[in-house]
Specification:
By secondary structure, the protein is mainly α. 67% of the residues lie in helices and 0% in strands. 11% of the residues are buried.
């Protein structure tokens, strides 16, 4: 077999790298309408071909790199706009103050690339039943001393 994949093998590799199962990719790439068992075995057989397997890995890696580049570009865009809006107080494209819609759009885009995060850290401490009971008793005494109604 030559080093170059056939068009059907390339299509199969593209489909697998895109998330299709081997059987589904085989059915689509080879226009197969046969038995499920045939599609499963043929899809597995194709993936055992080192050239097809390598091609799937290449396509997947290309997709990951493209996603990373896009995230960096989006991050730079958001940071750049927010910096200009903060420093200059105006949008350089309109020479006016940024609108609320522009600020919201920048915030949403920033969240998609994890520029902003809304993390809430919750710390829990282990307490015994006696410690909890003592805490409740202490709070009840404070309420009694303050003579405030409990509603």
């Amino acid at each position: 077999m030559a080093d170059k994949l056939t068009p059907k093998q390339e299509h199969f590799a593209q489909l697998v790298a895109g998330g299709k199962t081997y059987a589904d990719a085989y059915r689509e790439a080879y226009s197969s309408t046969g038995k499920d068992s045939t599609a499963h075995s043929e899809g597995s057989r194709l993936m055992k071909n080192p050239q097809i397997n390598t091609r799937c890995e290449q396509i997947t890696e290309q997709k990951h790199r493209a996603i990373s580049r896009k995230a960096v570009t989006d991050r730079e865009l958001v940071v750049g706009k927010l910096r200009r809006w903060t420093e200059d107080g105006i949008d350089p494209t309109t020479n006016e103050e940024p609108t609320q819609a522009q600020l919201t759009a920048a915030q949403l885009l920033g969240r998609t690339v994890a520029l902003f995060s809304d993390k809430v850290e919750q710390v829990t401490t282990e307490r015994t039943a006696e410690e909890v009971a003592a805490e409740i008793q202490k709070r009840l005494q404070k309420v009694e001393e303050s003579n405030e109604p409990l509603h």
